[in-house]
Write a structure and sequence with these properties.
Layout: E1 31-35, E2 47-51, E3 57-63, H1 71-83, E4 96-99, E5 101-108, H2 114-132, E6 139-146, H3 153-164, H4 171-181, E7 189-198, E8 204-215, E9 228-233, H5 239-252, E10 268-273, H6 287-309, E11 317-325, H7 328-340, H8 342-349, H9 355-364, H10 370-375, H11 380-386, E12 399-402, E13 405-409, E14 414-415, H12 420-427, E15 431-437, E16 443-450, H13 454-461
Parallel strand pairs: 5-6, 9-10, 11-15
Antiparallel strand pairs: 1-2, 2-5, 3-4, 3-10, 7-8, 8-9, 11-16, 12-13, 12-15, 13-14
C-alpha cells in the first residue's frame, strides 16, 4: 500500500529501517508445521509449531499486562524464567531464556479457565516436549480464540503426534503455521528482511535473516504486545540482548497499534534466535546489534501495519505520523491518541476531512505507562514521573494535514482553506496518512489503526454465536 503523502509543508517522515518483503521465509535453524486437530468448528488448520532442532534458541518475549492473562501466557512466563539465568553477556532479563519450540493453538484462548485450564496447557507443553525430545521448560505456548473455553487436550495431543515428524525447514511449512494462527484474520500475516551484519572489525561477512508471522485483527490496543506473533532470526544473540531488541522494537511498532481500544488476555510476542549463522555473537553496543535491531523493528512494523489494515471490518489503514514534539515519547502519545479516537476512525470511514477530531485527539494525548517508557529508554524514576502526564501541545504552533491537504496551521491563524471534495476523494484509499506537527522540538513518532465500520459492530455482536 502506498501512503498518500502530504505536500512539502508536512512531508511523510523518513524511515531508517531496511525494506521488508511480505513472504514467509524461514531462517536457518528453524523448522515449522501446522495441522488441523479439531479446535475450530470450521475444520480449518488450528495447530502450529515452530521448533529449533538440536540446541535451543535464545528467546525473549513481551506479554499482555491484562489481569486475566491466559494460561499460555502464565506458563510461558514460567518456562522462560526456569530456562533463563545469567548468560555470557550479562544477567538474565525477565522475559528471556531458552526455547526449543513454540506451539500455537487457535480457536480457544484458554483464558479464565482456572486451574483446569492451567493443567490443560501444561499437558500440551509436556506432550510437545516429549514428541520433540526436549525439556518441558523449553516449550513456549500461544493460544487464541474464545475466552472461557477449555482446549480439547486429547485432540491437541493427537495433532502433535501427527505433526511432530513432519516439521520442515521449507518456506511452505512456515506459511502453513501462519495460516493456522488465524482466527478472524482474513489473511495470514508474514514479513521478512535480510541484512548484512558486520564483523567486529566493521567488515561485512554474511547476511542475517529476520522473519515474523502474526495474527490479530481485534482486541488490539497499545499495551506491551497486542496480538500473537513469533519472530525468528538466525543470528547468535544472547537472551538478555535479545530481550532488549524486542522491547525496543515493540515500543515503535506493536505498542503503537490499535484496532478497537481493547487489550487481549493472550497478547504475546516471541523473538527467537537460532544462532545458525556462523558469525560472532552479537555484542551489546555493536554495529551488528544496531543492524539486527533495525531488522527486527522493520519486520514488527510491517506486521503491525498488516494487522491494522486487516482490522475487523476495516476498509482503511490509518497511519498517523507526528513530528515537532518535545521528545519521541510525546510524539508517540499523540500518534496513539489520534489513531485510537473513535471519532477520527469514524470520520475516516465516512471520508469526512474533519480535522477538528484530529486536533481534539492530539489535545487529549497523555504519556504512556511506565513499562512502555522504560522500554523506550527512560529510567524507572523518569518513567514513573512522566507516565499519565498530558503531552505538551500549543495550538498556535500545531499543524495538521489529511493526505496532501494541510487543513490547520496554528501559526497562520488556524483553519486553512482547502478543497473538501478533493480531500474526500483522497481519503478513499487503502491507506490514509494523517500528519501532525507540534512545532515544539525534534520528537517524532507514528501509530497505526483503522477506520471504525458497521462491519466491526456486526462481527463482534455475534462473535460467540
Amino acid at each position: 500500500m502506498t501512503l498518500q503523502a502530504p505536500n512539502a509543508s508536512l512531508p511523510a517522515l523518513p524511515t531508517d529501517l531496511p525494506p521488508v518483503e511480505r513472504r514467509a521465509v524461514i531462517p536457518p535453524g528453524f523448522v515449522a508445521g501446522a495441522t488441523t486437530c479439531g479446535i475450530k468448528a470450521s475444520g480449518r488448520p488450528d495447530l502450529a509449531v515452530i521448533a529449533v532442532p538440536g540446541r535451543p534458541a535464545a528467546a525473549a518475549a513481551v506479554f499482555t499486562p491484562n489481569a486475566f492473562a491466559a494460561a499460555p501466557v502464565r506458563l510461558s512466563r514460567s518456562h522462560l524464567a526456569a530456562s533463563g539465568g545469567p548468560d555470557q553477556v550479562g544477567d538474565a532479563a525477565p522475559g528471556s531464556g531458552w526455547a526449543s519450540a513454540v506451539i500455537c493453538t487457535s480457536g480457544s484462548a484458554n483464558a479464565a479457565t482456572g486451574a483446569a485450564g492451567d493443567a490443560d496447557q501444561a499437558e500440551i507443553a509436556s506432550a510437545l516436549a516429549g514428541a520433540l525430545g526436549t525439556t518441558v521448560e523449553r516449550v513456549l505456548l500461544l493460544s487464541t480464540g474464545i475466552i472461557g473455553t477449555r482446549l480439547p487436550v486429547e485432540r491437541v495431543r493427537e495433532g502433535i503426534r501427527r505433526m511432530a515428524g513432519r516439521l520442515g525447514a521449507g518456506d511452505d511449512h512456515l506459511m502453513a503455521a501462519a495460516e493456522a494462527f488465524r482466527t478472524t484474520d482474513t489473511v495470514a500475516k508474514v514479513a521478512t528482511t535480510a541484512v548484512t551484519v558486520p564483523d567486529p572489525d566493521g567488515l561485512a561477512v554474511r547476511p542475517v535473516r529476520v522473519t515474523g508471522i502474526a495474527k490479530g485483527v481485534g482486541m488490539i490496543h497499545p499495551r506491551m504486545a497486542t496480538m500473537l506473533a513469533v519472530l525468528m532470526t538466525d543470528a547468535p544473540v544472547a537472551p538478555s540482548v535479545l530481550h532488549g531488541i524486542l522491547r525496543s522494537a515493540a515500543t515503535r511498532t506493536w505498542n503503537q497499534l490499535t484496532i478497537d481500544g481493547d487489550t487481549s488476555t493472550n497478547d504475546t510476542v516471541f523473538l527467537l534466535a537460532s544462532g545458525a549463522t556462523d558469525i560472532a555473537p552479537v555484542a551489546p553496543g555493536s554495529r551488528a546489534l544496531a543492524t539486527i535491531r533495525g531488522a527486527v523493528t522493520a519486520v514488527a512494523r510491517d506486521l503491525a501495519r498488516q494487522q491494522a489494515a486487516d482490522g475487523e471490518g476495516a476498509t482503511t489503514l490509518i497511519t498517523c505520523q507526528v513530528s515537532g514534539a518535545v521528545d519521541d515519547m510525546d510524539a508517540r502519545a499523540v500518534a496513539r491518541a489520534v489513531v485510537s479516537s473513535s471519532l477520527v476512525k469514524a470520520a475516516v470511514h465516512g471520508r469526512d476531512p474533519n480535522w477538528g477530531r484530529i486536533a481534539g485527539a492530539a489535545g487529549n494525548a497523555r504519556i504512556a505507562e511506565p513499562a512502555l517508557l522504560e522500554a523506550a529508554g527512560l529510567s524507572t524514576t523518569d518513567a514513573r514521573e512522566r507516565t499519565g502526564q498530558p503531552v505538551i501541545v500549543d495550538p498556535d504552533r500545531l499543524r495538521i494535514a489529511i493526505g496532501s491537504h494541510v487543513v490547520f496551521d496554528g501559526g497562520q491563524g488556524g483553519p486553512v482553506a482547502f478543497d473538501r471534495d478533493a480531500a474526500r476523494l483522497e481519503m478513499d484509499v487503502p491507506e490514509l496518512l494523517l500528519r501532525v506537527d507540534l512545532g515544539l522540538g525534534d520528537g517524532t513518532g507514528e501509530a497505526f489503526g483503522c477506520d471504525l465500520t458497521e462491519a466491526y459492530v456486526r462481527e463482534n455482536s455475534e462473535y460467540t454465536t
